[in-house]
Amino acid sequence: MPKEDYKVVIGLETHVQLISDSKLFCSCKNPVTMDVEPEPNTLVCDICLGMPGSKPVFNEKILEFALKASLALNCEIAKDMFFSRKTYFYPDMSKNYQITQYEIPIAKNGWITIKGEDGKDKKIRIRRIHIEEDPAKIVHKKDYVLVDYNRAGVPLIEIVTEPDFSSPKEARAYLQKLVQILEYLGVYDSTKKATIKSDANISIVYNGQQGERVEVKNITGAKEIERALNYEIIRQLNIFRRGGKVVRETRGWDETAGVSRSMRSKEMEEEYGYIFDPDLTRITISEKEKEKIKEKMPELPDEKKKRLIKEYGLKEKTAEAIVSDAGVADLFEKACKRVSVKNASAWMIILLKTLNYNNLTYKNSGLKDEWVIEVIESYEKGEYSDVVSEEILRKMVEEKADMQKIVEKYGFKKVERGEKIIQVVKEVIAEFEKAVNDYKAGKEESLNFLVGQVMRKMKGAADPKEVREKIKEEISKTN
Ligand code: ZN
Ligand code: MN
Description:
It is elongated, with a radius of gyration of 29 Å. The protein has 15 helices and 17 strands. It has helices at 60-72, 168-185, 221-241, 287-296, 301-312, 316-323, 326-336, 341-357, 369-380, 386-399, 403-410, 419-431, 433-440, 445-457, 464-478, and strands at residues 6-17, 76-77, 80-81, 84-87, 97-100, 107-115, 121-133, 137-140, 145-148, 155-161, 196-206, 209-210, 214-220, 249-254, 259-265, 275-276, 283-284. Bound molecules: zinc ion and manganese (II) ion.
């Protein structure tokens, strides 16, 4: 193959479903916040079904949500804004238009910092953020489609970046960071049904030859963006390698098949025929209002990370993990008042692993600060071994119960000391003669094996260091 030199340019348009109680322009319940998937077409009204004569009413909560997101992404906020109708015919929009913002978005010219391909901080520019309604959900069957209007009118913000990503990995890092910030703000929750869907624009310059821009639509989440973009890069490179031309088009990402398929040649945004929506009034955003929102802004992950490193002397990796969940970060600081920083941080990492495994954030885990701190405290006092403490914490997450209830239910044993250990050590020495002899012959690993046997017999309720010492003592006595 001849020498290849290529550069990838990627920009993202990301739709985030916001977790307000009600929809964007009506008082129907927002299905993305519900624990159980509602029956199709049960969360609907005249407004979100687009019945003649119905009039949308803007949900003020969404203005607050969108302003928070805009400020957190370092954007300029519009002084006033309005909604427009984006006209198209498709069964997912019963009005034949989608209410969105086109001419004046709520915010523009922001940025977000991510870890770039080279491991250094990289600024990704945000071109604009606008508010719009989600269309209905279409379910494709063999010879017909089903439409579920529950999703019609779910509030979205669309965040559009400049084409600043140079790899699929950077696009993934961006979405992860974005989710983290939006969760801190309380406007999105990855553990609920709310989704984050991106359309990616991607073009390649191949041996100095500029390829056309291709849009890949409908990519859900951060992991999938990396996968879809990797696929698209290979597809475009193969066209170049064969001497072909990449054409400007829109493709759809099929997550199940792991491929993208051509949908249509790319239309221009102007072709949608945007028109001002006279049903909704212009909205003025005063300085006073902006100030009010600023006061309500929480400390964001980057600032928090810096502060934790400085105040508690945490390693960067540990701080990064702890701030990945706002609730865990708060808990960490509380715990530090009662236990050592070393134990507090180590147990936060264990807690995070358990939460992730159960697809929970701390906030919606149902855990109480006091419960978790008690586990760390009792571990620090040496009451329970690390193995048992971890098991208690895991059960706590699964069963949403305090330490006492978990210990009673599962009969977890406190760490035994002295006599009790010696008794078990004697049993193990008698039982595993070969290992004992190996150890005597200088095989250090045999000691680890014996420690393991004692710990197993004691169901983890002993301090491995003490067990080790006791085994050595007992063996030396047999000499
Ligand atoms: Zn409705
Ligand atoms: Mn959109």
